Amino acid sequence: MINNETVSIDRIIENLIYLHPLLSKSLTRSIRSKTNLNPGSLYILGMLSKHEILSMSEIGCKLSMPKPHVTGQVDKLITEEMVERLFDPNDRRIVNIRMTEKGKEDFKAIKLEVSQDMRQRIEKLNDEKLNALYDSTQVVRDILSDIMIDTKMTLCTKI
Amino acid sequence: MINNETVSIDRIIENLIYLHPLLSKSLTRSIRSKTNLNPGSLYILGMLSKHEILSMSEIGCKLSMPKPHVTGQVDKLITEEMVERLFDPNDRRIVNIRMTEKGKEDFKAIKLEVSQDMRQRIEKLNDEKLNALYDSTQVVRDILSDIMIDTKMTLCTKI
DNA sequence: GAAATTGGTTACAAAAGTATAACTATTTAT
DNA sequence: ATAAATAGTTATACTTTTGTAACCAATTTC
């Protein structure tokens, strides 16, 4: 399908660069208008809903947030009772974060709220395009989440 | 492949929500560190490289930027001589924006700079995954750019 | 031709994210 | 046991983006 690797990588990157503001448009704006959370704390919830438990540093690492920002966002989520701190008995420096049941429910509702505009647009797609979008977003997500996230914490210590 | 539409739409949206900070991570950070442009003005260049000529309002509409912000970002791009204003003879209120030759060259170089980290990660993929990512980003881009952008300007007058 | 609308700019305030340094508490290394 | 490194918080300054309102010039409407 592709005969020149460099060209295809350029194109992939161009696609991703183009995609980014498109997502921002739909998501960030409605997060702002429809919730009392910052986009940043929503991303933290997204990560937590995938990884169950993450330390403060891991959150900052995976989302590329500066540590002080993570602290602030998590504080907000805690006052909303959407996440809780778990102190690690093995290493008492580490603060692990986990979603509460309330957090999970709220997050589900928020996702529905936030994506309403996008949902309405996606719903208008015909089955063929819907399936294509489903498959493709899955592939992009899987591959990108694999290569973009530094699982080795050593790479993230500076953040 | 999918038998329940609602479920698949949920999943699509979840994928997109998850994808967003992943792209931010790689792109926004390096835009900041490697260029003297804001992410916002880079997105404007991205739109211009696809649409050739756009009015100020159209830019704000497609990127969901408030009009005053568009003015500021375009001003920056003009002082960098990367875009130029074209006054519309048919409607002298309209200010059309187009990339200069310098802008096109610079943008190409900036994209290369900005995506270096991402490029290195993508390069490590095997051919199969590379092809999958190529195809999928293309599909996501095509479909999303189709449904997310309000071509009817009437929907954007308030921005 | 007067009134309303539209495209764009200016000015200003507020929100969100980023960057840095200093600091505490804990753990690891020597 | 002391020194160095790590996890996290606090404080602060800064950049980027968002949101409003007021305004001008050009166009459209009636």
* Class derived from helix and strand content of chain A: mainly alpha
Q: Summarize the largest interface: chains and residue counts.
A: A-B, 59 and 58 residues
Strand and helix order of chain A: HHEHHEEHHH
By DSSP (H or I, 4+ residues per run), the number of helices of chain A equals 7
Named at the architecture level, the CATH assignment of chain A is Orthogonal Bundle
Bin the helical content of chain A: 55-70%
Shape of chain A: globular
Corresponding CATH superfamily of chain A = Winged helix-like DNA-binding domain superfamily/Winged helix DNA-binding domain
Uncertain stretches of chain A: none
Oligomer: homodimer
Mean pLDDT level of chain A: 85
Strand order of the largest sheet of chain A: 1-3-2
- Using the coordinates above, name the CATH class of chain A: Mainly Alpha
- The share of residues in extended strands of chain A comes to 5-15%
- C-alpha end-to-end distance of chain A: 39 Å
How many beta-strand elements of chain A? 3
How would a crystallographer describe the biggest sheet of chain A? 3 strands, antiparallel
Q: How many structural domains can be distinguished in the coordinates of chain A?
A: 1
